[in-house]
Amino acid sequence: MHEEQLTSRRVHCPYCDAPFDLLVDPSQGSHVTWEDCHVCCEPIQVRVDVDLQDESAFQVTLGSDDDVL
């Protein structure tokens, strides 16, 4: 992970709707990872889609454990 590449995104837990700041490293390219909600402790699926032409342009999609992202 490149700390200088980290970007913060304000997102909401798909379970309890608690807001939190998610740190994303777009230099890793498109990927799927998991984060636990800091409020309800449920596992959140995090999908990061990075634009191949401009890695500063990316989209974050959150889903519950059962979602297919």
Give an overview in words.
It comes from Halomonas ventosae. Pfam families: Zn_ribbon_21. InterPro entries: zinc_ribbon_bacterial. This is Cysteine-rich CPXCG. The strands form 2 sheets. A 3-stranded antiparallel sheet has the order 3-4-5, with no helix packed on it. Strands 1-2 form a two-stranded antiparallel ribbon. With 69 residues, it is mainly β. It is globular and about 35 Å long. It has no helices and 5 strands.
What is the gist of this entry?
The protein has 69 residues and is mostly beta strands. The chain is built from no helices and 5 strands. Helix content is 0%, strand content 46%.
**What is the averaged pLDDT score?**
90
Output the strand order for the largest sheet: 3-4-5
Shape: globular
List segments where confidence is low: pLDDT < 50 over at least 5 consecutive residues.
Answer: none
Q: Helical region count? A: 0
Helix content: under 10%
Question: How many separate domains make up the residues?
Answer: 1
Could you spell the SSE succession in H and E letters? EEEEE
Radius of gyration: 12 Å
Main sheet characteristics? 3 strands, antiparallel
InterPro entries: zinc_ribbon_bacterial
Organism: Halomonas ventosae
Protein name: Cysteine-rich CPXCG
